[in-house]
Structure formats: C-alpha cells, structure tokens
Design a protein that fits this description.
The chain contains seven helices and two strands, in the order αββαααααα. The longest helix is centred in the C-terminal third of the chain and has 36 residues, at 165-200. The chain has 211 residues and is mainly alpha-helical. 74% of the residues lie in helices and 4% in strands. It has one domain. Strand 1 (30-33) and strand 2 form a beta hairpin. The chain has helices at 2-26, 46-58, 61-87, 94-98, 102-129, 137-159, 165-200, and strands at 30-33, 36-39. It has a two-stranded antiparallel sheet with strand order 1-2.
C-alpha cells in the first residue's frame, strides 16, 4: 500500500509538470467553439485541480503544497522555452533563440501567480470537505472554485493590454468561456476519473483531517 502511494505521488508530480507545460502553450492558441472564443488550454488545465485533490487525498495538504512547488518551476521553464522556440521559428538565429520573448514570459508569470493561488485555494477547500459522506463533494467544489479563481487571475495578468492583438481584445470573453468549459469538463469527465483512481488505489476516507 505504501509503495503504491509513493508511486502514485511520483506519477502525480510528473503529470503536474506535463499539464502545466502543455496548458501554458495551448492557452496562447484561441479558437471558436459554438460561436464563442476560447483556447485549447481549457481542455487540459482542469485536470491539474483533480491531480491536486488526488495528491491531497493520497497524502496530506503539506505534501500537496510541496508537490505544487516542485512541479511549478520545471513546468514554467519548459513551457516558456517551448513557447519561445515556437515564437522564434520565423527567424532562426542565436539572437532570436536567446532573446527574451515577452508574451511567453508574461504567460509564464501569470501562470505562476494563478497556479499557486488557485491550487492553494483548491487544497484549502478540499481539506475542509474531504470527510464528506459523498466522495464527489470535495473534488467537485474545490475544483470549481479553484478554476474560477485561477482562470480570472491568469487571463487578467497574461492578456490585459498584452502584445497579442486578439487575446488583448477578447480576454474577458475568453476567460468567462474558458472557466465555464473547465467547470463543465471537470464535472463531467475529471471528477469521475478521480473516483476511479481512488478506487484503484483503495484509498480510504480518513476520520481526521490532516493539516
């Protein structure tokens, strides 16, 4: 059982890094869905909140916070360098490769602020609700509130008066649509996945909340 938990925590850390990286890149690519502006990041980022809830359930809040900090730095650095490389493909040179790319850097900074605040809020709410008689209450509410806070913070910091013409103009609409899609995707898909993973690892509800 202990070995399963250690393996699960390692996998969750790796998954955090991967999802931070891919989401930071995909959020810079908007598209229209049913007439609404959104970004591809709306389909990947909600999973981070379910991972955080699983981490908290598998261990405790302190370990979950540690994993958030461990995952954050490599995730932000990798996503920044990949996004910068994509941005500089039009003019390949050492100067363009090592130049500071304002848009990816601003997105990385926005992700840092939104990720930390959103994830800590998610952990805080989950801890207060984890002993609920219904297993889905804690991940559903913590993920919903965390997504709202994270999304509004991220889009405000990343795209308010940014150098990206489309995102600078439409970021309020995209933020609202994004958070709606994130909540919908989380409740329909990711919360049930959370329940399946809990069952797979045979995690029992604890009578005492660990702080």
């Amino acid at each position: 059982m202990i070995q399963n938990k250690i393996l699960a925590l390692r996998l969750l850390t790796g998954a955090h890094v991967f999802l931070i990286t891919i989401s930071n890149i995909l959020v810079q690519y908007p598209f229209d869905l049913f007439g609404y502006h959104t970004t591809w990041g709306a389909f990947t980022y909600p999973f981070i909140f379910i991972l955080t809830d699983l981490t908290t359930r598998l261990s405790n809040a302190k370990t979950a916070r540690s994993i958030i900090f461990i995952s954050m730095i490599p995730g932000l650095l990798i996503s920044y360098f990949i996004a910068s490389s994509i941005e500089s493909l039009g003019a390949l040179s050492w100067n363009s490769f090592f130049a500071i790319h304002y848009m990816p850097l601003r997105v990385a900074f926005a992700c840092f602020i939104a990720y930390v605040i959103g994830q800590f809020m998610d952990i805080f709410i989950f801890q207060r609700l984890r002993n609920s008689s219904s297993w889905w209450v804690a991940p559903a509410l913590s993920t919903t509130i965390g997504n709202i806070i994270d999304t509004l913070l991220f889009f405000t910091i990343a795209f308010y008066h940014s150098t990206h013409p489309f995102l600078s103009q439409h970021w309020p609409e995209i933020a609202i649509v994004d958070v709606c899609f994130k909540i919908l995707i989380s409740l329909i898909a990711f919360v049930p996945i959370y329940g399946c993973v809990l069952h797979f690892f045979s995690i029992k509800y604890r009578n005492k909340v660990t702080v």
